[in-house]
Fold this protein.
Amino acid sequence: MADTQSPGAFVEFERVQKSYDGENLVVKDLNLIMPKGEFLTMLGPSGSGKTTCLMMLAGFETATHGDIRLDGVSINNIPPHKRGIGMVFQNYALFPHMTVAENLSFPLEVRKIGKSEREQKVKRVLDMVQMGEFGGRRPAQLSGGQQQRIALARALVFEAELVLMDEPLGALDKQLREHMQFEIKRIADNLGITVVYVTHDQTEALTMSDRVAVFDDGRIQQLAPPDKLYEAPENSFVAQFIGENNTLEGVVKEIKGDTALVRLDDGELIDCKPVNVTQPGERTRVSIRPERVEYNKSRLHADAHTLKAEVLEFIYMGDIFRTRLRVAGNEDFIIKTRNAPDQVRLQPGTQIEIGWLPEDCRALDA
Ligand SMILES: Nc1ncnc2c1ncn2[C@@H]1O[C@H](COP(=O)(O)OP(=O)(O)O)[C@@H](O)[C@H]1O
Ligand SMILES: [Mg+2]
C-alpha cells in the first residue's frame, strides 16, 4: 500500500479491522489521527478491543484490514526495533536478577549504545522519575509504585517518541495510582512525547488525557477532549459510561431548531437538545448530569418545563449533597448540589419541582 499521510498526523489508523479467528471482528472500523505530542487514552469496557489496537500499533499483532501509519510510514514496513516505541504494561516484568540500573541499561545495550552514553541516559531517566538513589537496588527491594516508575523509566530510556501504556497503574492502590497519573502526565508533557494510554478507568482517562477515545464493541463511540466527552456525549453508551448520568425515557414530540420537545413515558413534557434524534415519533433516552439539575426556581428560565419530584434520600458527602429523587417513574434520579452555607438540605418525603437548561438535557438514541 502506498504511504499517505494526513496533515499533522503522527499516529494514524485508517479503516483498521482485526479478527483473530478469521470470523469475528474484534476491531471493526478504526479511524484515528493523532498529532505529535498528544496524550490520547483508549477507554472502554473489558473486551472492547483496546489492547488489540495497542498491540497492532506496537507490531505484535497485524491488522486484518486497513493501514496503521507512524509519521506517514506504514507500520508493516518498519521492523519493530526501529519503530521507536516504548511500552509499559500492568505486569511490567522487570528482570528480577538485575539491578534497577541494569534493567534500564539493557534496552540500550540491545541497541548497541556505548557504556558511557548508557550510564548517562540511565542517570537522566532515573532522575526524571525521581528514583536517582535507587539504581543499585533489585526490583524485589522496591515498593509497587517504585517498580512502576522503573517500568516507566525503561520505556523512556531510549527516548522513544511514542510510548504505549496498557493499564500501567491497574495493580496500584488508589492513592499511589492518583499520584502516578499526575507523574506520568507531567513527564509526558515535559518530554513532549506522544502517548497512547489504555484504561478502563474513566477518572484516569478524564484527568490525564488531551483526548479520549471511548471504545465499545470494537469501535470508537466518541473521540473528544475530556470536557466535551462529559458535557456533550454523542450517544447513550458514552453518556452512561462516562460519569454519573440520569436517564428518562420517552418519545420525541417535535423538534424545532435547537430544541426537542419530548413526551416522557409517564406523560410529562420536557425540553431537550436533540443530539441523535431526528424526527417526531422516535423513542429517545434523555440524559441529564446530576449537577445540572436545578430545584431553585429562581435560577430557571420562566418558560422552562419543570417536573415534579419526590425526595427519597439525602446523602451528606462533605463537599457535596447527593439527593435521590423519584422523577417520572425513575427512582434513581440523582442530583448533586454544592455544600454552600445557604444550600437547602432536602428531606425525604418533600415534594419539589426540578428543571434544567434545555442544552443540559440531551435527547439520545433509545
Ligand atoms: N490473542 C487473542 N486471540 C483470540 N482472541 C483474542 C486475543 N486477544 C484478544 N482477543 C479477543 O478480542 C476481543 C478484544 O480483546 P482486547 O483487545 O484484549 O480488549 P480490551 O483490551 O479492551 O479488554 C476480546 O473478545 C478478546 O477475547
Ligand atoms: Mg486490555
